[in-house]
Amino acid sequence: MAILLALSMVLVAIVLLSIERIPVEVSSLALVVLLVLSGLVSSQEALSAFSSETAIFIFTLLALTQGLGATGVMQLVGRRLVLFARFGPGVLSALLLVTVCAFSSVASNTAVTAAFLPIVTASAVNAHVPAARLLMPMAFASMMGGTIFLFGTSTNLVTSAAMESLGLERIGFAELTPVGLPLAAVGILVT
Fold first, then answer.
1. Residues 147 and 180 sit within 8 Å (Cβ to Cβ)
2. pTM score above 0.90
3. pLDDT computed for residue 135 by the predictor
4. Cβ proximity of 43 and 29 under 8 Å
5. Tens-of-pLDDT digits for all 191 residues of the chain?
6. How many Å apart are CA 28 and CA 33, to the nearest integer?
7. Which run of H or E residues covers position 135?
8. What's the alpha-carbon Rg for the chain, to the nearest Å?
9. What is the model's pLDDT at position 136?
10. Are residues 8 and 40 in contact, defined by beta-carbon separation less than 8 angstroms?
11. Number of neighbouring beta carbons within 10 Å of residue 176
């Protein structure tokens, strides 16, 4: 019975989050209330997620990324990248991948990808290159950049918190760098 209830909650979540008139924040809080009312989650468990260091850090990271976008830092860098389109698709692609990788190592890689999407599309038009030739490598560079530092992707943060809950030591800020940086470099070269 609990499995059917859990599956029905997943369906409710899909419906609530797909309705654009209801803000995502309202839908998310409604889902938490429904989980508590259904008995799938205790009220202590539901409220403990709001005090999780990892959740707070992820929200802070998203705010930082929004700040980078709102202040125009990413757009400024993107406009500078568009200027390199005249040197050919190879130069543009290399600079784009390095830039996206660098941004996504210190900000949410998903948000960086979303912020660079219009920049890459404009660059592709200026370089007379199909956008598909730049978009997929950009997505890969963003993912690889997320492996360089602890907060490059929320997966690293969640894993670090899970390790601590199991009695292991948390992942350090640059502990992933010796593996992530060469991985990103090789990935950019291959892409």
1. yes
2. no
3. 92
4. no
5. 788 988 999 999 899 888 888 888 888 889 999 999 999 989 888 888 777 777 777 777 777 767 776 787 777 877 787 777 778 788 888 999 999 999 899 888 887 888 888 888 888 887 888 888 899 999 999 999 999 998 888 888 889 888 988 999 999 989 999 999 999 999 999 97
6. 9
7. helix 132-145
8. 20
9. 93
10. no
11. 22
Which residues contact residue 68 at a Cβ distance below 8 angstroms, ignoring those fewer than 6 apart? Answer: 74, 103, 107, 115
CB atoms within 10 A of CB 36: 16
Integer Cα distance of 68 and 61 in angstroms = 11
Strands (E), the chain: none
Contact 98, 145 (CB under 8 A): no
Helix (H, G, I), strand (E, B) or coil at 146: coil
For residues 102-132, b (16+ Cβ closer than 10 Å) or e, as one string? bbbbbbbbbbbbebbeebbebbbeebebebe
Long-range contacts for 7-14 (Cβ within 8 Å, ≥24 apart)?
A: 9/34, 9/35, 9/38, 9/40
Question: Residue type at 74?
Answer: M
> Both tokens of residue 184?
């990103």
